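Appendix B, Record 12. Input sequence as logged:
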Amino acid sequence: MSIVLYWHPMSSATPIACALAELGVPHERVKIDILAGEQRRADYLALNPNGKVPTLTVDGAPMFEALAIHLWLGHRFGVERGLWPAAGTPEALQALSWCAWAYVTYGAVLVRLQVATKGEEALRSTPHAEAALRGLNDLLAVLDARLAAQPWMLGADYSLVDLVVGSVMGYSVYLGAPVQAHPHVKAWLARVQARPAMQIDA
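Logged structural output:
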């Protein structure tokens, strides 16, 4: 199987690179210089019509959207490596739920914060930013309650779910989300980020 990751350092493709490292999956990396606009080249748009990173090709067939790639990696490689729950188990249902929660539920509020604080000047808004921070704080309380009951997202052991959720949480810290106010999330995130596979930055 030939796997190629099209990525750019310090982008939404970085968690995919980290997941591939965590899983020990052999792959090739192709850097797409998004600062130079390479993501808008016709050959790249043929792989990813959104013109963004990441893109993963599997034997030449392209896949895009980070969450979709994470879930595919979990199902394809994670089960045999003990980093993703087997299909048909209660843990598998939780894995899908929490990954979607991070990218969709939490992610939607995070985008509101990003637009209100770092978006175009006309879209920046202190009231909108404050509302987004309150929303993130409420969601972080949900995550904190789960991590108060167990050390990792699915229970006693680290899994790819921790990497997926932790990647979103880490980016949210950068944007100013109140992670520090939730001690179990803060401690768990530090453990996730300390893993060797998470040290990819180039």
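The two ends are 24 Å apart (CA to CA).
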